[in-house]
Each structure stands twice: as C-alpha cells, then as structure tokens.
Specification:
By secondary structure, the protein is mainly beta. It has one helix and 24 strands.
C-alpha cells in the first residue's frame, strides 16, 4: 500500500529516525541531515551520508549528463555525452578526497550546487521556475573540450516523484526525480554544438540524499519525451533499494502531473544487458518493452569504494494507463534503464 504524504515537516526526528515514510508530489520535507544518528560519535556522521545532484538531458541527436556528488569520504564529479547516431560515448570523472570544494544544497527547492578546481567547473543554479546547468571542462576528452549552458524549465506547481523510505533500521533514502524539464541552450563538445529547443529536448533531475548500506544494489529506468499530440510524457521506475512497501518511485508523468504506479517488475537478463527488458506492474496498467542499443558501463575500484553500473540506452514501446483511464501509447521513445552495484 503506497502512502502519499501531504503534511510538511522535517525529514528526520531528533533521534535520527524517519519522521514520515511515503511518497509525495512535491518535496515538502526539510532535509535535516544534521539529525542523522548513524554513529554514536556525531563527527563521523558525514562519512556515511550520500548526497548527489544528477542531471540528464535528451536532444534528438545526443544525450548529456552531469553529476555533482558527495559520498561522505569522497566526492564524485562526472560528465558524459553520447551521439545517438554513431553510438560514440565519452565520459570523464574525478574522485575528490573528502568532497573538498563540493557545494550541495540542503533541499531541492533552494540553493545552488557547485564544484570547481583547475580542471573543471560545474554550476547548477536555481531560480524561480528555472534550473540552469553551466559547465566548462577544457581538457575533456584529451583536450576536445566540453562546455554547456542549459536552462531547464520547472514552472511552479510542477509535480515530481518524491520518496522517503527506510533502509534497514538505521539508514534511509530521500529522493526527488523530475522528468520532462523543457530544455533550451546548447552543449559544445569537440567542435560540435548541439542546440537545444524546448519543443524537442527534455531534461531529468535525480536528487538524492541518505544513508545507504555499504553494499548496495538498485535498478532505475527513466524516459522523458513527447507524445504525437505534443504533450510531455515521462516514466520513472525503480527497485532494489530499501523498503519500498509504503513508497516506491514508479510513476507516469503526463504534462507535469504524477500518475502513481504500484510495484513494477524489471524483467531482464542480468549480464546480458542488450537483450530486451520488459516492465509490468501489479495493477495491469503498465506494459513496456525496452530495446537497448548502447551499453554505458562505468566502473570504479578504489578498494573500499567500488561501483559498477550498466546504463542501457534504448527505445521504449508499449502502453501505460493514466489515472483517468486514458491509455498512453509509448512509441520508440528513447530512454535508459540501469543495473547498479556499489560498495560505498
């Protein structure tokens, strides 16, 4: 039984427990991570708290993504871009000891995210109704260079998929995902400029905060695009992390409104990721097939910190039923689906 939260308040109680468990259409809980009580010695709390802002932008020709993350004992900065026609993908990242120089906001509705050193500058700026991504990485891909100035429209009242769930007895996860952010601006990489037009380009935000288990695993799948009649459509699906009995992140997002879905099955061949993935839900509202065309594999091995993600890019086809009973046909919309294992 999914529980929708509507009462504002703190994320955590004074003893570090979750104040409310459930899902929300708006991020109404204050992310008071200073109240976390994972360790008896409070100065050590910061080493277990994970925080990240991940942006993804689809244009008809390219995919672009940028992340600023603080994992407590290390920061992780990475940017990647892919050409759909050729399949060419390039990714660069930096591990920042103790997250030095990383700035991330307390809540997803206020404050800016920032990182800068001698190699790169990443700025995620919030203003009324807008989210701006500004990046300059001159040495990206052996000096080809990458820069981006992107504006994502997020009008007041835009609904998003927000969850707060427990992970075991002491851990928790607070997450916000916004699909279908109309994108404008440009991305320059290797002498090529990709102009972004809001009628054809769409962005997604994955905003996460929490205390995870050292050994973690999850699936995430997402798409943001346009229907033939011009309406925006997005789908967000996830499983494998924490206790999802009272709140999951599965939803259809139609014209910036959440249509909540119950439990969803990820039916795919782990280890043979290029085979089609199938998605179905417990209520009979979702029937999707995802056919990959590109495997983005990213591995990190720093002894005590390891991760391996297979983020598959491909086409979604099938149907999903809105709250009012309308059957939405999904036809060849590009999105991604991933399997992620981490020790962090």
């Amino acid at each position: 039984m999914q529980i929708e939260l509507t009462r504002p308040g703190p994320l955590l109680n004074p003893d570090g427990s979750i104040a409310q468990v459930g899902w929300m259409r708006q991020p109404i809980l204050d992310c008071n991570l200073e109240s976390a009580r994972f360790y008896a010695l409070r100065p050590f709390q910061r080493f277990r708290i994970k925080r990240w802002d991940y942006y993804a932008v689809f244009s008809p020709q390219h995919f672009f993504s940028a992340t600023i993350a603080d994992l407590g004992y290390a920061g992780n900065i990475f940017v990647y871009t892919m050409d759909f026609a050729s399949g060419d993908l390039h990714e660069e990242g930096m591990i920042i000891p103790l997250g030095k120089g990383i700035e991330l906001p307390r809540n997803s509705l206020e404050g800016d995210s920032h990182f800068e050193n001698g190699k790169a500058r990443l700025d995620f700026h919030l203003s009324t109704g807008l989210r701006t991504i500004s990046i300059n990485w001159p040495g990206f891909d052996n000096g080809k260079g990458l820069s981006a100035e992107i504006v994502l429209a997020c009008p007041p009242g835009t609904e998003s998929m927000n969850i707060v769930i427990p992970i075991g007895k002491k851990r928790f996860y607070s997450n916000r995902k916004i699909n279908c952010l109309a994108a404008s601006g440009e991305v320059k990489y290797g002498g090529v400029t990709d102009k972004l037009e809001p009628k054809t380009c769409s962005g997604t935000l994955d905003w996460g905060r929490g205390v995870w288990e050292y050994g973690s695993y999850w699936n995430w799948a997402s798409l943001s695009g346009f229907l033939p009649d011009g309406r925006t459509v997005g789908i967000n699906m996830g499983c494998g992390f924490g206790d999802l009995t009272r709140a999951g992140e599965n939803a259809l997002i139609l014209e910036n409104r959440i249509h909540k879905l119950e439990q969803i099955k990820f039916d795919y061949a782990s280890g043979d990721y290029m085979k089609p993935w199938k998605f179905s839900d417990t209520e009979g509202r979702l029937d999707l097939v995802f056919t990959p065309f590109k495997d983005r594999t990213a591995k990190t091995d720093l002894v005590i910190i390891t991760s391996e993600v297979h983020q598959m890019f491909g086409h979604y086809n099938g149907t999903v039923v809105a709250d009012d009973g309308e059957v939405i046909a999904i036809t060849d919309l590009i999105g991604f689906a991933e399997e992620h294992h981490a020790k962090w």
